[in-house]
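pls design
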């Protein structure tokens, strides 16, 4: 059989040469985008190889290096890790040294039996917010969470929770943070609050003040040798005077923050969440460290900065009760007050 042949561009072609020159029908065609992507990939690999040869890395590919870094924090140069650890240790020591000159804030988490599961979860979240706010301060406070694991809790007319269930919240929620043991200026104390207060009063010679919104005494400044207790309670204002009654039971002095004296909160409750109380105290401690004293204007500035928006009465509402107010403005004010009265807060301070 005579093979097929022809002429193309002055050159004789047979069937075999045609098979070699023409690509297969199903061969993938590389687009411009794919070619650019492959080119960038090759350039990135060459750049990584040059960097590896200059630093003497041990991993064989960029993928392996990133995997090693994510797995055991060893993808980078080994000479940097000791320096980083040393720098972090120095920063931690400096932060803890500053915290020794600050007041001690004690979170009372013995109200677990008085809260539902979601409220205990909310309390754990607020404690994490407290740590984050305190970590950003130049002069951090010392935070201690009284979270007994043996079921020793403050109960007000509720059926006591079994000890295994009492240990679950909020301590177990905090344990979900892998770096909890490395938190700076934050300590978990599993002793009962009564034992902690007795130790601070007798051995450490410190005064203990329980912060509660129901107190008649107002606190205008902080003392470095004083322990301030914040009630860890998220109860939607179900239990009235619960923290004040507990302070009286423990024989502790009470005090409240001067919120109503420095900020016009209108008809809103003076009860704040745990993290808002801590933020106010942390900011004021920065003022006291820099100015050696805290003025009423400092309190006003900090409260306006830290209080939630719904708690702050707008400047235009100061004269809203006058004769010049329109009926529509008054109706809006009444509806806003009704909505806010339905909200619940935590940590009566």
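designed seq:
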């Amino acid at each position: 059989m005579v093979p097929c042949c022809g002429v193309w561009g002055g050159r004789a072609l047979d069937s075999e040469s045609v098979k070699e020159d023409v690509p297969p029908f199903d061969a993938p065609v590389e687009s411009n985008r794919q070619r650019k992507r492959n080119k960038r990939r090759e350039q990135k690999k060459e750049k990584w190889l040059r960097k590896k040869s200059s630093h003497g890395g041990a991993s064989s590919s960029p993928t392996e290096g990133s995997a090693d870094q994510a797995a055991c924090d060893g993808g980078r140069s080994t000479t940097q890790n000791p320096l980083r650890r040393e720098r972090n240790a120095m920063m931690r020591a400096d932060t803890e040294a500053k915290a020794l000159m600050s007041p001690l804030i004690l979170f009372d988490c013995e109200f677990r039996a008085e809260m539902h599961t979601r409220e205990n979860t909310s309390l754990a979240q607020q404690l994490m917010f407290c740590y984050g706010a305190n970590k950003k301060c130049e002069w951090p406070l010392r935070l201690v969470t009284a979270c007994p694991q043996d079921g020793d809790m403050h109960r007000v007319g509720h059926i006591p929770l079994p000890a295994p269930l009492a240990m679950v919240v909020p301590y177990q929620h905090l344990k979900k943070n892998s770096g909890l043991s490395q938190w700076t200026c934050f300590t978990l104390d599993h002793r009962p609050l009564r034992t902690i207060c007795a130790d601070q009063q007798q051995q450490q010679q410190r005064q203990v003040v329980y912060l509660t919104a129901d107190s008649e005494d107002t606190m205008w400044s902080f003392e470095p040798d004083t322990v301030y207790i914040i009630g860890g309670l998220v109860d939607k204002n179900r239990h009235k005077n619960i923290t004040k009654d507990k302070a009286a039971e423990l024989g502790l002095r009470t005090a409240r923050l001067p919120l109503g004296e420095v900020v016009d909160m209108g008809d809103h409750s003076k009860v704040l969440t745990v993290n808002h109380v801590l933020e106010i105290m942390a900011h004021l401690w920065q003022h006291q460290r820099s100015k050696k004293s805290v003025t009423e204007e400092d309190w006003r500035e900090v409260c306006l900065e830290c209080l939630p928006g719904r708690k702050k009465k707008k400047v235009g509402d100061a004269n809203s009760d006058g004769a010049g107010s329109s009926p529509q403005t008054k109706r809006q004010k009444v509806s806003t007050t009704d909505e806010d009265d339905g909200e619940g807060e935590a940590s009566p301070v």
